[in-house]
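Our consortium's second objective concerns turning raw sequence data into structural hypotheses that experimental partners can test. To show how far this objective has progressed, the report includes one record in full. It was chosen at random from the queue rather than selected for favorable results. The single chain below, 244 residues long, was entered without modification.
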Amino acid sequence: MLVRVLLAAIFAGVIAGLFSTAVQSHRVIPLILEAERYEGDGAADGHSHGTAESGQAGDEKTSEQIVEETESWAPTDGGERLFYTGLANIAVGVAYALLLTAAVLALNQTMTLRSGLAWGAAGFVVFVLAPNFGLPPELPGMQAGDLQARQIWWFATVILTAIGLGLFAFKQGLVWALLGVALIIAPHLYGAPQPLSHESLVPANLAADFVMATLVSSLLFWLFLGAALGYGFEKAMKQEEASS
């Protein structure tokens, strides 16, 4: 039974990752490409100024050499970029599917197509919506706070939100409900790490569109993942009953 469930989870993660890639290619990826154009323009300006100053100091490097030395590898736009995005989304989809499976089994819950949607919605709230209140999605060229501090805050927010929702779902009574609320809002009262400056080359409307597009694509991903996982659970249960 466990093997069938794990295989169903992996399959659900793979197809959810492919689905997410298709959704992102419609709106999210084009916004990232547009933001990279602004980032590239700013970098070009910075390199050109640096070249002029170094020329006065007798440095013979050209702007092309400076770019080659400072830029790291990145996939080319088009098919290659979409391929690597798909691989990343599949890996993320499988990881989240296994996490949901572990939670369902640990809580001794049954999962169907319908309840899978509820689990997917909960995953969206825990892993996307709650952290995004403090750390909204960032486009290339936008300022960000300290990476380690952001990671710690993100993990704390995810864990506390998951526990808080669990208290709402599986505990009865006002005390448990109040404790759940306290856990959910605690990281936001503490506050997410913020950058020293919010200045950015990226237009505000582009950043806002990216936040909305990311939220919508993430919601669709989680609902699809939950539904696929619920369907896989149901199928695995029927196969187990048929073989026993």
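The partners drew two points from this record. The CA atoms of residues 41 and 201 lie 9 Å apart. Residues 2-142+200-243 form one domain. Both points have been shared with the crystallography group to help prioritize constructs.
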